Amino acid sequence: MQRILLAHGGGGEEMHALINDLIFGIFDNEILRAQNDSAILALDSLCGREINAQIGAQGIKTGAQTQESFAFSTDSFVVSPIEFSGGNIGKLAVCGSVNDLAMVGADAQFLSCALILEEGLELEILERILRTMKQEAQNAGVAIVCGDTKVLPRGSVDKIFINTACVGGVFSAPLNTANLKVGAKILLSGDIGKHGGVILAHREELALQSALKSDCACLKEVVRALLESGVRVQCMRDATRGGIASVLNEWADFKGYELLVRQKDIAVCDEVAGICEILGFEPYELANEGTFLLAVDDKDAQRALEILQRFNPLASCIGEVVSDRAKGVICESIYGAKRYLESPKGELLPRIC
Prior knowledge:
By secondary structure, this protein is an alpha+beta fold. The protein has helices spanning 13-27, 30-33, 89-102, 123-140, 194-204, 220-228, 243-255, 270-279, 301-311; strands at residues 39-44, 54-56, 59-61, 67-77, 83-84, 87-88, 106-118, 143-152, 160-170, 185-188, 233-238, 258-262, 292-296, 316-323, 328-332, 338-340. Strand 15 and strand 16 (338-340) form a beta hairpin. Helix 3 (89-102) packs parallel to helix 4 and helix 5 (194-204) packs across helix 8. The protein is globular and about 55 Å long.
């Protein structure tokens, strides 16, 4: 009998198989098949609050009235440790939810907060986490408007888990992987692996004498700057579980394309490189919580890069979509050698977010 493994939550091949083959197979509908970070829904502006989408045997039915699009996403956060250099589970919950909407060109506006607490959790820690959530939400212009609290017996949950749902209006043309085209340039918003590196360092109790902090941050401002500039963004995805390797392979698999990325253009700080060398991890597979990939029209790549570098000087153009006659991600080393950059496999790093 097959059972759920830790690998099914790691952001690699096993997780994608679980989602695509089992979960999407059962809940199958047009919106899920788009495989976006957030669902794009149509709100019938002539019918009050009625959602003008019916999911049933006939698929998605959309009316003819004038409509306003909004995005809806949900996420659960179980990171261990719950406090880490550069943030805590509360910051992660707000930023992760806001970023899911940003990746489809939506402005997060309302957030729910459901807390699952372990008996014995110190109130001082809980207050610290909640105050962080409040501050991050205020910074992002998001209101926390509803929630739920459950307390479980000691040992039934590890300190605190947080579930959020986020809603916001879409302010751009539709952004999804289906828009990806041959010739598109692939840009990266900053250096990679800091969140995964910080969590690894905490868990392995590495005595790092460095200022390494998680990159956990809201991406709402940089995404709005890109989209309001007129840059033709085809798709975006924040590189969380499974890192940039996971995102790039998702794009390649979804479209049946071949992508080329260049190692020399992918920034990895010394601390992350050192952790990977010590523990045998691949920086391309480490999680990020404030770094994203985007594909843009070739003629807009330089303008997009200039905008990204205003927010992070380490942003770079790392590659392009080279072919629709092959499928996979090719990584060119600093010496010019080429290899397949495969989707992560196995457990990777459980409870990274």
